[in-house]
Amino acid sequence: MTIDVPMHRYEGSENAAGDRDYVIVQETIPAGFRLLTDSIAGQHLAFDYADNVLTLYYGNRRDIGSLSYRMVATTPGVY
Question: Residue 13's pLDDT is what?
Answer without folding.
Answer: 55
